[in-house]
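ARCHIVE CARD
CATEGORY: sequence design from structure
SOURCE FIELD: tokenized fold
FIELD CONTENT:
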């Protein structure tokens, strides 16, 4: 009888102790999402207001690699605490979200949920981008490509600029079915007004597919330099030969008959003088 009473007392103490412990309930839904989709988690607790802890998101495979952590504090109304974790750029595989206290972890009720396994599926290989990821502002932003087995079901895009903020979507655009492959081809031009890095989020009815960053750069101004052509005129100096004129014989102003006559008289005089000397 005493043994029975002792066992009953111990059981009662355990139940009282269990009932007096606090509960912590972590919920992430869904627990399997495509890479690129935001992981949404919520924490409900009846811990006393002011209780603080961290919600840690990390890769859980061969080694544990922390990706992100968010601090939480229980409020007076013990309202639900929310956390969002970005999975953009992560690899497909096994991950984990866990509640971590600073220091010694307090005892919690047995039905508490303080950690969850998360599976990320990589769908990036389903998407092919055919438009350039670096584009000039004058013609941006062209988003073109194909979705594997997308058919004509459409694809949803959302465009966020690093500085410009949301510029488009989320909105579905049409896809054209390729009868041979079943792939869905798409093309959409989004008007943007400034150079920026624009993240384009692709998704469909099955969830997130991939996130691609497009770099939009300012138009390149081409300055045309017209060379100045200086025309050099070549001055050719022509040397003029100076010819010395040949003296023209001076013509006698006396008639030829008079000259001949004078010569004849001179000869006759000379003959006469010669005879007189003999």
């Amino acid at each position: 009888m005493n043994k029975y009473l002792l066992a009953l007392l111990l059981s009662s103490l355990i139940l009282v102790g269990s009932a007096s412990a606090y509960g912590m309930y972590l919920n992430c839904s869904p627990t399997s999402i495509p890479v690129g989709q935001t992981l949404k988690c919520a924490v409900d607790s009846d811990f006393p207001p002011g209780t603080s802890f961290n919600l840690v998101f990390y890769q859980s495979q061969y080694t544990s690699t922390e990706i992100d952590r968010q601090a939480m504090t229980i409020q007076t109304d013990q309202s639900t605490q929310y956390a969002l974790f970005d999975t953009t750029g992560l690899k497909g595989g096994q991950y984990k979200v866990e509640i971590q206290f600073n220091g010694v972890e307090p005892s919690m009720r047995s039905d508490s949920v303080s950690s969850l396994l998360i599976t990320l599926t990589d769908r990036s290989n389903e998407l092919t981008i055919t438009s350039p990821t670096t584009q000039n502002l004058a013609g941006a932003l062209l988003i073109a490509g194909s979705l594997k087995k997308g058919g004509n079901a459409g694809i949803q895009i959302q465009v966020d600029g690093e500085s410009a903020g949301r510029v488009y979507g989320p909105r579905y655009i049409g896809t054209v079915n390729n009868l041979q492959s079943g792939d869905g081809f798409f093309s959409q031009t989004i008007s943007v007004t400034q150079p920026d890095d624009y993240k384009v989020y692709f998704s469909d009815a099955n969830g997130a597919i991939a996130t691609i960053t497009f770099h939009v750069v300012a138009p390149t101004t081409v300055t045309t330099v017209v060379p100045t052509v200086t025309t050099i005129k070549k001055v050719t100096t022509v040397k003029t030969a100076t010819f010395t004129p040949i003296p023209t014989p001076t013509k006698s102003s006396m008639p030829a008959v008079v000259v001949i006559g004078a010569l004849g008289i001179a000869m006759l005089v000379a003959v006469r003088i010669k005879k007189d000397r003999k």
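CARD ANNOTATION: Confidence is low (pLDDT under 50) at residues 5-10, 12-19. The radius of gyration is 55 Å.
SHELF: design records, drawer C
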